[in-house]
Design goal:
Blueprint: E1 11-15, H1 18-29, E2 32-33, E3 45-49, E4 55-61, E5 81-85, H2 88-101, E6 104-109, E7 117-121, E8 127-132
Parallel strand pairs: 1-4, 5-8
Antiparallel strand pairs: 2-3, 3-4, 6-7, 7-8
């Protein structure tokens, strides 16, 4: 019997230093490595999971990766990841954490009435958002 639709597994981000980028997101999101991906040796493919083993993000080692220049279209983002927090206080807290972990702040929309948001670039240049939902 075949399943009616493909199932989503995880999002994969390319990186010239997959371990460093995985560490950034592991710390930012409180995730853990898939068994066997722990350690400090460079790796070509790493997976981060929730505590129950649900896959969240994976990282693939690449030789070159021009960072996105978003919002300029010179090097488009092509994909970005969104994360939510429950309120403005949590947004401010995680804004500071993201910066301390090495994110670069691209846009401050924290005062927006409907959906307060911060947009960042991760250490490899991938845009991501944290917003109140």
């Amino acid at each position: 019997m075949t399943t009616p639709f493909p199932r989503f597994l995880h999002t994969v981000l390319d990186a010239t230093d997959a371990r460093a980028l995985a560490e950034f997101y592991r710390e930012l999101l409180g995730l853990r490595y898939r068994p066997g991906d722990e350690g400090t040796a460079p790796a070509g493919w790493l997976v981060l999971t929730e505590d129950d083993g649900t896959r969240v993000l994976a990282f693939e080692q690449v030789d070159e990766l021009p960072p996105s220049t978003w919002p300029s279209p010179q090097v488009p983002a092509q994909v970005h990841v969104d994360f939510t927090v429950p309120d403005r206080q949590a947004l401010a807290h995680h804004h500071e954490r993201a910066l301390q972990l090495g994110a670069r702040h691209l846009r401050d929309g924290s005062e927006e009435a409907e959906e307060p948001i911060h947009v960042y670039a991760d250490p490899a240049g991938h845009p991501f958002c944290i917003f109140v939902a």
